[in-house]
UniProtKB/TrEMBL annotation:
Source species of the chain: Methanocorpusculum parvum
Role, per record: Catalyzes the first step of diphthamide biosynthesis, i.e. the transfer of the 3-amino-3-carboxypropyl group from S-adenosyl-L-methionine (SAM) to the C2 position of the imidazole ring of the target histidine residue in translation elongation factor 2 (EF-2).
GO function terms (MF aspect): 2-(3-amino-3-carboxypropyl)histidine synthase activity; 4 iron, 4 sulfur cluster binding; metal ion binding
UniProt record, GO biological process: protein histidyl modification to diphthamide
Annotated EC: 2.5.1.108
Enzyme category, top tier: transferase
Listed name of the protein: 2-(3-amino-3-carboxypropyl)histidine synthase
Length: 316
């Protein structure tokens, strides 16, 4: 649910007249409705039509026209002037957790993780599970994930801070659940609240086999492009500079949108991603050449062993 009633008083208190609105892809169909509601309150409205995948991807150029940018869907990952964040919340019926109880009871503690739309329910989820015999715990997040139990594709601090024997991820898909497994190396289950509460234990084995193949392929590369994002919450300049210093033919590439066409045109044999960590792990099939994470690049160069493989995270 998008609660515009929470943001309109804040806009008026700032004496804002022109409002830019940014929505992630899944919420863009709500753009016309949001614009109408804001216009009815007397604001001029601009909708950012560019692709948006998170609060790390703010449309700050819209502030050349607008007094305030309202970013809908996420909590902040950076502090920006004249940006208001309006998280998207979606309730799930707690009874959907029943299918998870038999498997979770076998563990001494189970860390609860989820994405932003359900993070407001983590305490209620934890209580429900405890009432049904599961010792559920919630870990504190980080500056990028301020809500308890919240995870992003770029950080799993709340999972690691829970220090549990096993983990439950509540949300659609298994990407974040696999990330929890990689970050904690503990048994991890995924429960999709919109698929009849189907519970599955996840494993990163298939992903790791694919990553190993890309690492082996990259060992024959002669040139490496170090991708440095120009997006508001993805730029890791110090990391990019450190990685570029590991190989004589590594060059930093400043880039906003990373696409197959861009990487083909740039012509490097392989790339190292310091932008959104999800790019290398989840989108490799889009690219004909290896796109490595920082730790994978270190493995290619013999600076790290495969046994020390770690998931890439953007840390505070």
């Amino acid at each position: 649910m998008i609660q515009l009633s929470e943001v309109i008083p804040e806009l008026k208190s700032r004496n804002a007249k022109r409002i830019a609105v940014q929505l992630p892809e899944g919420l863009k169909p709500q753009a016309a409705k949001i614009a109408k509601a804001l216009k009815n309150e007397g604001f001029d409205v601009l909708i950012s039509g560019d692709a948006c995948w998170g609060a790390c991807d703010l449309s700050l150029d819209a502030l050349a026209w607008a007094d305030v940018l309202v970013h809908v869907g996420h909590t902040p990952v950076t502090t920006e002037k004249n940006v208001i964040y309006l998280p998207f919340q979606q309730d799930i019926p707690l009874e959907i957790l029943e299918s998870a109880v038999p498997q979770l009871r076998q563990y001494t503690s189970v860390g609860i993780t989820t994405t932003i739309q359900h993070a407001h329910q983590t305490k209620a989820i934890c209580k429900w599970l405890k009432d049904h015999g599961v010792n559920a715990v919630i870990g504190t997040g980080s500056s990028r994930t301020p809500l308890e139990g919240q995870v992003l594709g770029c950080t799993y601090a709340s999972a690691k801070n829970a220090k549990a024997e096993a983990y439950l991820f509540i949300g659609t898909g298994i990407f974040h659940a696999i990330g929890v497994w990689l970050a904690t190396k503990k048994p991890t289950f995924a429960l999709d609240p919109f698929a009849d509460g189907i519970l599955q234990e996840v494993s990163a084995d298939r992903l790791l086999r694919k990553r190993f193949a890309q690492i082996e392929k990259a060992k024959s590369a002669k040139t490496f492009g170090i991708l440095l994002s120009s997006k508001s919450g993805q730029g890791r300049r110090e990391l990019a500079e450190r990685l570029a210093g590991l190989h004589e033919n590594a060059v930093i590439i400043l880039i906003r949108e990373i696409s197959e066409m861009q990487l083909r045109n740039l012509g490097f044999d392989a790339y190292v991603n310091t932008a959104c960590p999800r790019l290398a792990l989840d989108d490799q099939s889009r690219f004909p050449m290896p796109v490595l994470s920082p730790s994978e690049f270190e493995i290619v160069l013999g600076k790290r062993s495969w046994d020390d493989y770690i998931i890439d995270e953007i840390l505070p």
